[in-house]
Amino acid sequence: MTDDASSLSSAQDVARVLTEALPYIQRFRGKTIVVKYGGNAMVEEELKRSFARDIVLMKLVGFNPVVVHGGGPQIGRLLERLGKQSRFIDGMRVTDAETMDVVEMVLGGAVNKEIVSMINSHGGRAVGLTGKDGGLIRARKLTLGGAREDAGRDIGHVGEVASIDASVVDMLEHGSFIPVIAPIGVGEDGRAYNINADTVAGKLAEVLKAEKLMLLTNTRGLLDKEGGLLTGLDAPQVEALIADGTIHGGMLPKIRCALDAVQNGVRSAHIVDGRVRHAVLLELFTDSGVGTLIEAQVSRP
Q1: Residue 161 and residue 204: Cα distance in Å, rounded?
Q2: Which tens digit of pLDDT belongs to each residue from 153-211?
Q3: Conformation bin of residue 190: beta by default, left when phi > 0, alpha when psi is -120 to 50
Q4: Three-state secondary-structure class, residue 137
Q5: 89: Cβ–Cβ under 8 A, 6 or more apart, which residues?
Q6: What is the pLDDT of residues 21-78, one digit of tens each?
Q7: Distance CA 29, CA 40 (A)
Q8: What gap in Å lies between CA 286 and CA 54, rounded to an integer?
Q9: Which of 211, 212, 258, 260 is most buried by a 10 A CB count?
Q10: Partners of 163 in the β-ladder
């Protein structure tokens, strides 16, 4: 193939991609899309850059992206440097007062500001928040329940969402800003609480009446028992997969979060492979996508 022919083929590929993206841009313009940012996408430099560019492009074409981020590995590394061992129960970090100080320093400080800086360096206008800002996230202390041996055990400053006042987020996203939110809430007692980032993203999507909730993970999406990717599912199908044990372990809380969101007004939830460059754009703007789509009810012929 000659250089001219190669250039033409490349240009035609670009035109095809843009044409494929057009109906999605038209459909989601002016809509809120909540993205939970975590996993490999937060630690690998090229993935971090591609994520920031995705978010900026979403804003430029008229979407209203809202980013909620985690930061567990970064918290763990700082605790280790301070000589403090991390302890977990059911995947939740036991968070005493000293650990909570580290959580706030890492999530509300270093990680949040790094994401804000990345987005801004690619032409966006990001604003960093924690759930403490503007009374955004009211939290209550999380108590372990059930019949397990750890039931009732105090795991410290670990919380769950009691309520969300999203007025500050609404004001920012409907301006020219991109909110970037650390999952720290404040209780009635004025204490700070560490909250699961997936949970915060899901509840925020519900309150904002978001078009989509996107959860970035380190897997291809939801897999069947043979390891195949499940793409389009509705709520009854997801419940059946939970019941038969297909969805289990660490994926279960994430799927529950997505399921709650679509059953409470969010149009769709996506479990997206954050290890893929530009995963957010691929899931939003292409017919194939790179993960699992979950809706409350899929209309069938």
Answers
A1: 10
A2: 788 999 999 999 999 999 999 889 999 999 999 999 899 999 999 999 999 999 999 99
A3: left
A4: strand
A5: 144, 150, 153, 155
A6: 889 899 999 999 999 998 888 888 999 999 999 999 999 999 999 999 999 889 999 9
A7: 28
A8: 13
A9: 258
A10: 138
Tokens in use for 53? 């560019």
Question: What gap in Å lies between CA 149 and CA 110, rounded to an integer?
Answer: 36
**Separation of first and last alpha carbons in the chain:** 45
Burial of residue 78, with CB atoms counted within 10 A of its CB: 0-12 exposed, 13-18 middle, 19 or more buried: middle
Half-sphere exposure of 291 (CA within 13 A, CB side): 29
User: Which residue type occupies 251?
Assistant: M
Joined tokens for residue 124: 């966006």
Contact assessment for residue 68 and residue 181, using Cβ atoms and an 8 Å cutoff: yes
Sequence-ordered alpha helix ranges (H) in the chain:
3-28, 45-60, 72-81, 97-103, 112-121, 167-173, 197-207, 235-243, 251-263, 279-285
Q: How crowded is residue 202: how many other Cβ atoms within 10 Å of its Cβ?
A: 29
Q: Assess contact for 247 and 241: CB atoms under 8 A.
A: yes
Closest CA to 54 of 290, 282, 292, 286: 282
Residues 6+ apart with CB under 8 A from 209: 32, 265, 266
Residue 88 amino acid letter = F
What is the rounded CA–CA span in Å between residue 203 and residue 256? 12
Residue 200, both tokens:
């915060």
| Conformation bin of residue 44: beta by default, left when phi > 0, alpha when psi is -120 to 50 | beta
What tokens appear for 186 in the block?
């404040």
136 in Cβ contact with 168 (< 8 Å): yes
Confirm if 160 and 140 have CB atoms less than 8 A apart: yes
The predicted model scores a pTM of 0.90
Q: Helix 235-243 crosses helix 251-263 at what angle (to 10 degrees)?
A: 150
